[in-house]
Amino acid sequence: MNRNTLVSFALLSLGSLSAAAEVRLPNVLSDHAVLQRSRPIHIWGTGATQETVTVTFHGQTATATANADGNWELWLRPEEAGGPYELTVTGSQSSVPVKRTDLLIGDVWFASGQSNMEFPLKGFTGAPLLNGDKEIAASTQPKIRLLRERKRTSTVVQSDAQDTWTLCTPETAKDFSAVGYFFSRELTQEEHVPIGVIDSTWGGTPAHAWMSGEGIAYANLPSVAADAARIAIDQGRADTLKARYAAEDAALKEAGKEVPTHARLSYDHSGSWTPSTLYNGMVAPFTKFGIKGVIWYQGETDTAPERAPYYARVFPAMIQDWRRQWGQGTFPFLYVQISNFGHVNDGWGQVREAQRRTLELGQTGMAVTLDVGNHDNVHPSDKQTVAHRLAMVARESVYGEKVQGESPTFVQATQEGGTMRVWLAHATGLHSEMNPLSEFEVAGEDHKFSPAEATIDGETIVVKAAAVATPRYVRYAWNGGVDCYVYNGKGLPLGTFTSER
């Protein structure tokens, strides 16, 4: 190696070391980000070992020192809603400061779940959004910022997001969660603060994929372990079938015959059903970032017989897991009770009931959507109503408005001779277009439910069935498909419930 080559090599090496040492921020701290108001602002990143890092933001200055792995973090004092502001990060061993511009201070909501939360403004094939074209055209919202995280599974916890914040425009909003967008639009209009929404969703996924491995172990969920075992068995079968199909295809090709092009492995979910893979890839990267709360729409996949009976344990365990992972206290966790769909099985009732009972956790809220479902399509088009009801819950329970945003809620059922009386909260103005009411069932001590006739009596509902002389339990809207809806005076519907524990 001659002298010139050695010099060039040395310069390249120094350049590489310099580039590797440059101070860096994570993707979630990008231009256009919304930082959570009224709580300490977490700023973190990487740099050279023992590098001194200085951060300036809106008149504040703070310093940190990178550890042996090059990681650093610091906290800024809480700020009130406002902006846009600029953030500058300077490293003592970095050649150029890192700058982030157009940052707002406001409220950040993490929107997650499966396909009905993923459902974008442009809709899905065969499932358009209600008034989708008009909604997209009107989606320039300067006080709303969007971060749409691409799908990613991982067997290990990821530390950085794949995507960054964008302005809210027709171009960015059309691919964004419709529920997330409409929810943020209403909050921006009513609360008069900037809103940032993170869309981290994957259609057709079970709740346990969104839990950390630590959370699954902490909650001692054997049903998740059993499901993981089934997935592993199926994957083993899949690998065997892939090899067999490959051999068959090769034989067909050798014989000059047509090779099938259709998918043959209907249960291949790209790893998205494996416990913790979506938490690792699509939730963990955001747990250092300050949020106001979570909005969640999921559960359809968990109506399967092998998962539905356990959703009452899995779902609240997931909420508690996320709260532990974020380390920001009992932040609001608002969710949608899944809509009606034309399946006739207990799974839908079990999941809806599990969602109702999860309200026993503090700082939770539920939007009931039975009446905006579609018997023939699991992706109903009216996401505006879903988001509005979520926003009503948020405005009342999180922002302290007196909007009466709660649906009628089951409190207790009492036996009165041959009838059951259902007592409800938030039931002022209780009414229905159907009289008598259908979708109610009662059971005796044998726990065998029979269809019943029900009538509204003030703020209660009286239920009876000729087949059950001495009723003990009552339930409502237990099947997937539902045709009778009961509303309070604010037009909010009663959700699925059972008095059977």
Automatic annotation (TrEMBL):
Residues 1-21 form the signal peptide. Keywords: Hydrolase, Signal. GO terms for molecular function: sialate O-acetylesterase activity. Residues 273-386 form the Sialate O-acetylesterase domain. The keyword Phosphoprotein does not apply. It comes from the Bacteria. It holds the Pfam family SASA. One of its GO terms (biological process) is carbohydrate metabolic process. InterPro entries: Ig-like_fold (IPR013783), SASA (IPR005181), SGNH_hydro_sf (IPR036514), SIAE (IPR039329). This is Sialate O-acetylesterase. It comes from Terriglobus albidus.
